[in-house]
């Protein structure tokens, strides 16, 4: 057990969501080894609110991955854009297996009470995405033409009293 393992007790995930930027910088510099940290030049291109978003995303991923994963620059750039309400294009110069999925995972970590809908053309890619999201404790389900054939899925997600209590 190293210092990072002890820190999880001190900096629970819900606290990361509330910390101001200065505290996030301190926690980032404390928990994330220097060789995994992004360069200062990356952070300086953003305003304080965007830095806060990026630091928070970095720490949430670091903790959720049990101190294994830290976002790369393109992943944080996409996440900061998404969380700032801007468009983001990922994948133009990023190859297969390079980590584009984290560009979808990070906003879910930052806004855990929201729902994200991701459209994917291949069933095997859908399955991989569901596994990746679950690795970070994000609930995910693939819905495709085979979904109707899976009665267990519909038992778990059956609407409750739809029409009676909801006014529909």
From TrEMBL:
<dbReference type="GO" id="GO:0003676">
    <property type="term" value="F:nucleic acid binding"/>
</dbReference>
<dbReference type="InterPro" id="IPR027417">
    <property type="entry name" value="P-loop_NTPase"/>
</dbReference>
<dbReference type="GO" id="GO:0005524">
    <property type="term" value="F:ATP binding"/>
</dbReference>
<dbReference type="Pfam" id="PF00270">
    <property type="entry name" value="DEAD"/>
</dbReference>
<feature type="domain" description="DEAD/DEAH-box helicase">
    <location>
        <begin position="73"/>
        <end position="139"/>
    </location>
</feature>
<protein>
    <recommendedName>
        <fullName>DEAD/DEAH-box helicase domain-containing protein</fullName>
    </recommendedName>
</protein>
<dbReference type="InterPro" id="IPR011545">
    <property type="entry name" value="DEAD/DEAH_box_helicase_dom"/>
</dbReference>
């Amino acid at each position: 057990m190293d210092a990072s393992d002890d820190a999880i007790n001190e900096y629970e995930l819900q606290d990361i969501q509330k910390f101001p930027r200065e505290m996030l910088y301190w926690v980032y510099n404390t928990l994330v080894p220097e060789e995994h940290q992004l360069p200062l030049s990356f952070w300086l291109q953003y305003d304080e609110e965007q830095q806060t978003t990026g630091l928070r995303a970095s720490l949430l991923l670091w903790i959720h991955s049990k101190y294994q994963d830290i976002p790369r620059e393109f992943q944080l750039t996409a996440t900061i854009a998404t969380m700032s309400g801007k468009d983001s294009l990922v994948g133009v110069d990023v190859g297969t297996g390079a980590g584009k999925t984290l560009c979808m995972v990070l906003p879910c970590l930052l806004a855990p009470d929201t729902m994200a809908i991701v459209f994917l053309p291949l069933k095997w890619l859908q399955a991989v995405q569901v596994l990746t999201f679950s690795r970070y404790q994000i609930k995910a389900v693939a819905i495709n033409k085979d979904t109707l054939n899976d009665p267990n899925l519909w038992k778990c997600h059956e609407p409750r009293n739809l029409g009676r209590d909801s006014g529909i």
